[in-house]
Amino acid sequence: MIIKPILNSAANPGKSFWLLQLLFLTAFSTLAQEQKHLPIIDVHVHAMKVNPAFSGDMCPWFLKNMPGGDPNQPPPSFITLDCADPLKAAKTDQEMQDAVIGTLKRLNMTFIVYGDPQIIRKWQKAAPGRIIPGIGVSSPKDITVKAFQDSLSSGFYKVMGEVAPQYQGLPVNDMSLDEYFAVAEKLNIPVGIHMGTGGNGMANITSPKYRASLGNPFLLEDVLARHPKLKIWVMHAGYPMINEIIALMGANAYVYVDLAGFIWSYPQEEIHDYLKRLVQAGFGKRIMYGTDLLVWPKLIETSIGLIENANYLSAEQKRDIFFNNAVRFFRLDESKFK
Ligand SMILES: [Zn+2]
Q1: Residue 106, pLDDT score
Q2: Which residues have CB atoms below 5 A from the ion given as ligand 1?
Q3: How do strand 131-135 and strand 159-163 relate by DSSP bridges?
Q4: Distance 203 CA to ligand 1 centre (A)
Q5: For residue 260, how far is its CA from the centre of ligand 1 (angstroms)?
Q6: Which H/E stretch holds residue 44?
Q7: Does the CA dihedral 231-121-146-166 come out positive or negative?
Q8: Cα 165 to Cα 163: distance, rounded to the nearest angstrom
Q9: How far is the CA of 264 from the centre of ligand 1 (A)?
Q10: Distance 149 CA to ligand 1 centre (A)
Q11: Where are the beta strands (DSSP E) in 81-130?
Q12: 3-state helix, strand, coil in the chain (%, to 5)
């Protein structure tokens, strides 16, 4: 664009050549600056010690086929390898860290991370300022209220998550969890709660106490009513309970959702229907990007790609999902991302 008038001024070719050189150099340095990826905040990352015995490769969108079976037969495998290019599982903690932090830096990302504090500290060291630790409570057996409050007050943990009592058959509105939410409310800590999705056979194959009904987003209404200052986001966007999540967000103006997990496990058409419906219902400013990263480093690009390919979202809506909504929800300082 800038070069065009110079090319047209052929009167003094020698001068034009040097001007062109200069312009190319300027263009290249501008390009190098522009190559910095627009920032992405991933609000749902798990950091854990890699156990090679339990970390196999995985085909994204593996739940496109929920095979029939019989309780008297061996259970169907949770994850399938029925695709051309399965995502490779990391085999060691170091391999996982190098790959994940490499991607984080290349894509200009910031992670909200749950899991093993030792791993979280290592990641923080490798990517200063880009790892925000979260601490989850899914049952009063996990940690005492006092210890939980101390963990948050120490300043290391900035977020409460992943809270996932559903896997233990415990309703999120159970009074045994109430004091923990009171602590988060008092300390102004945002809370991420697992609601909904579980995969094929979660209740009768994987986690016997899991109940689909306990993923009902309406269970959050009591918690929100008891704690009016509590900031909650519903993880996995409460998939597949679209009507309930829309009603909940309509009734509770500060509730957000993340897209973690279900965007790489359920069939793509189904995911897009769900996301489209959320945006169509007016909640484009309350959807946050999340991977639900476990042991497959490439899952980050796979999940980001799904949002980038959503042709029903405008560029602005995608930026909201990838960045703006999380900055607002977590009260982050936007100038730090410039
Ligand atoms: Zn979850």
Answers
A1: 97
A2: 194, 235
A3: parallel
A4: 15
A5: 8
A6: strand 40-47
A7: positive
A8: 6
A9: 13
A10: 22
A11: 109-115
A12: 50, 10, 40
Distance 206 CA to ligand 1 centre (A): 14
pLDDT averages per 10-residue partition of the chain, 338 residues:
35 44 49 74 97 88 88 86 91 97 98 98 98 97 97 96 97 98 98 92 91 97 98 98 98 98 96 98 98 97 97 98 98 93
Return the amino acid letter for 150. Answer: D
Q: Which value, to the nearest 10 degrees, does the dihedral of the CA atoms of residues 35, 41, 45, 47 take?
A: 60
Q: What is the DSSP letter of 334?
A: G
Token pair 């730090």: residue: 336
Among 216, 217, 218, 198, CA closest to 208: 198
Candidates 226, 233, 281; CA nearest to 259 is: 233
Residue 39 Cα to ligand 1 middle (Å): 24
Q: What's the half-sphere exposure (Cβ side, CA atoms, 13 Å) at 64?
A: 14
Distance CA 100, CA 291 (A): 12
Q: Which two tokens stand for residue 92?
A: 């060691």
| Helix/strand number for the chain, H first, E second | 13, 8
**pLDDT attached to residue 7:** 33
CA of 70 to the centre of ligand 1 (A): 27
Q: What pLDDT, on a 0 to 100 scale, did the predictor assign at position 9?
A: 37
Give kind and range of the element (H or E) at residue 243. helix 242-251
Task: For residues 55 and 299, give the distance between their C-alpha atoms in angstroms, rounded to a whole number.
Answer: 14
Cα 322 to ligand 1 centroid, rounded to whole Å: 19
Phi, psi of 63 (to 5 degrees): -85, 15
At residue 267, φ and ψ (nearest 5 deg) are: -60, 140
Largest CA distance in the chain: 87
What's the gap in Å between 235 CA and the centre of ligand 1? 6
198 CA from centroid of ligand 1 (Å): 8
Nearest to 256 by CA among 170, 195, 201: 195
